[in-house]
Every structure is written in structure tokens, then in C-alpha cells.
Amino acid sequence: MKDFIINSPLDMHLHLRDDDILKLVAPLTSKYFSGALIMPNLLPPITTKEALFAYKQRIIESCNHDNFEPLVTILFQVDYTYEFLKNIKDEIIAVKLYPFGVTTNSETGVSSMEITVLRPTLESMSKLGIPLCVHGETKGFVMDREKEFLPIYESLAINFPDLKIIMEHISTKESIELLKKYNNLYATITVHHLLLTLDDVTGGMLNPHTFCKPIVKRPDDRQALLELALSAHPKVMFGSDSAPHHRKTKECHDGAAGVFTAPIALQLLTQLFEEHGKLDNLNAFISLNAQKIYNIKPKSKVINLVKKDFIIPNSYIYKNEEVVPMFNGKKISWSIEKINNG
Ligand code: NCD
Ligand code: ZN
Predict the structure, then answer these.
(1) Residue 1 has what pLDDT?
(2) Which among 116, 208, 260, 268 has most CB atoms closer than 10 A?
(3) Could you identify the atom of ligand 1 that is nearest to the CA of residue 106?
(4) Domain locations along the chain
């Protein structure tokens, strides 16, 4: 195989931030993807129609007029009214729920995961057909946080059978079992959870650029995720969770969680699917599954990849912002040759 085409790739979990870092990273997604589901975890978070419209506008202005659609979200609040959600429904693709304090900028997340507390908003979302994206982690031992959250996913799935629930960035084999058990559960998978284990973060020298929430796990977890993604199981879709932080806030004491992969994800996924002889499933994993799950039709964008070495840049810089991608300075065997918009 010497070349490969990806049609209208979608990134169903992306952090774009704001201000200069938005200006730095937005073009690195809008160039290569047709659309992306944008996380609302700014400080303050996106929780009103005004903030949503203004943020979407700033994103569009930062994208350099590529053929790209930001699929925007709002942050889950326990006191959203039915009228508010009805009024905003056509402007958003989903509502994102963060439990309080489990990851970057989740100080504004929900402080209780009790069904009775969440019920009013979830019932309205369910009636209105608004999907729920969840960062499913507790505050337990770091390797067990996702596993400990599974009973919560299960009770959400049972209590709200008409609600589409997306288990974000799944990282364990136990999550896969639960995903398959309930019709209304779906999942996103990142490229880093398909490639890394905890050894790549702390097994040798500490690597802050592979540190994220949920933390990458054991080899058997990675293997199970890989099999699920390679088979393009219809309940999973690609969501990079590309989460840029300034170099100085990664390479330091108290380093921030988040792996930046936006400009290298398509090349890495092509390499990975080719290595396993599964390129035939790549378009489903990167676009078709998400189109079906979310019932969306992405803008047309054709990405031509060729088997040619690509050295991942050491960092990406704009004004005072500098972001280091995963695998900085390393070689990948696939490059993006041509992009056709329209
Ligand atoms: C994300 C971020 O930096 O906003 N960090 C991360 O490690 N994935 C937040 C998140 O999605 O957990
Ligand atoms: Zn995220």
C-alpha cells in the first residue's frame, strides 16, 4: 500500500482553548478535518447561548477559512431548564459532563453524580434528543478511576434509555464490555490510548507529553482498545482528545494533563491501521461511525496520504504560545500529500 484516502475525517473530541492558543491550534485541525466536536471546558466554561455563539465565531475566525465545521457543545449544568435546552438544541451537538475536579478545568464540573441530582437536565436532554458526552472518572486511585466510574455509566444507561451517552476517551477493557452491554452507550477512542501504555509516561524518563486524563493504562487495555478500533465497531468513533497546553505548563512541576495530537493523528492512525492490515476500516472509525451515531453530514474534504516519512515537529509556535505534540521529533511512515476541500 503506497497511498490512502480519508474522506471527511471527524474528530469527535477536541480541545481548542481560546485567544492565541486557539489561533495556533485551530488551523492544525481545520486543515485536516471536516469537523470536530469542541469541548466547552474553558474558564469560565461555555454554558450560555451568548458564550456559545461568541466562542464559535472566534473558532471560525481562527480557522483560516478552511472547509471545517466546529460542532460546539455546552458544559453540563444541573439547573438547565427544558426551555433553555430546547432553545439551544439546534446550535449544539451535545452537552459535556465533567465530574468536579477530575481533569483540567473541571472545577466547574458537577459535584454530585447522583441520578436524582442529574435527572432534571438529563430528562430534558433525553426528550429533546441531545446526546450526553461524559468524562467518566472518579477521584480514586489513578489507574482505577475509569473502572470505578462504570457503575455510574451503567445507571445512566438504565435510567435514561433514550439518551445517547458517549463514554469519552475509553482507556480500559472493562469499559469495552459495558459499552457493548447497553444500546444507548457509545464511545470515543483517542490515538494515544491506542499507541501508549503507562510505560510511555513513567516507565523510563518521565514524559509529560504523554500525560493525560484518563492516564494511558496496561498493555492488555491497549490491546482491547486496538481490536475495537481496528474492527471499526459501530459504537466507537475517533475523538483525539487533543488537549494543547503551553510547553511551560507541561514541562514543569505540577504539569497539566493533556496530549496534543491534532496535526499528527491522521498520519498515526493510517500507519497503525496499515500495520494491522485494517485500512479498509479506517474511514468508518474516523468518519462514518460518527456520522451515523450523531446523524450528521460533514463537509466534503478529501485527504490524500502517501507512504513517505514525516518527521513530527518539535513544537508549534504562534506569538508567545508554544505547544509540543506527542512523539515530537519522531518519524512516522505516512504523510499528508494533498487536501481537497469542496
Ligand atoms: C483535557 C484538557 O486539557 O482540557 N485534558 C486531558 O488530559 N484529556 C481535559 C479532558 O478531556 O480530560
Ligand atoms: Zn478532553
Answers:
(1) 81
(2) 260
(3) 9
(4) 3-341
Give the dihedral sign, CA 245/9/284/165: positive
In this structure, the residues whose C-beta lies within 6 A of any atom of ligand 1 are 15, 41, 103-105, 135, 212-213, 241, 243, 257-258
Distance (Å) of CA 190 to CA 127, 140, 156, 261, 266:
30, 22, 23, 9, 11
pTM above 0.85, yes or no: yes
Is the pLDDT at 312 greater than 90? The verdict is: yes
How far away, in angstroms, is 104 Cα from ligand 1 center? 5
Best probe residue, ligand 1, of 12, 15, 106, 215 (max atoms within 8 Å of C-beta): 15
Q: Give 274-295 pLDDT, tens digit per residue.
A: 999 999 999 999 999 999 999 9
CATH node for 3-341: 3.20.20.140
265 contacts 325 by C-beta, under 8 angstroms: no
The set of long-range contacts for 152-156, using a CB threshold of 8 Å and a minimum separation of 24, is 152/113, 153/178, 153/185, 154/178, 154/181, 154/182, 155/115, 156/115, 156/118, 156/122, 156/132
Instruction: List CB contacts of 27: < 8 A, sequence separation 6 or more.
Output: 62, 63, 64, 66
| 163 close to 85: Cβ distance less than 8 angstroms | no
Q: In sequence order, what are the beta bridge partners of 328?
A: none
Rounded CA gap, 175 and 151, in Å?
Answer: 10
Is-contact 190 175, C-beta < 8 A? no
Angle at 154 between CA 148 and CA 156, to 5 degrees: 115
144 classed as catalytic: no
Q: Give the three-state DSSP class for 236.
A: strand
Distance CA 271, CA 268 (A): 5
Q: How confident is the model at residue 104 (pLDDT cuts 50, 70, 90)?
A: confident
The Cα–Cα gap between 35 and 40 comes to 16
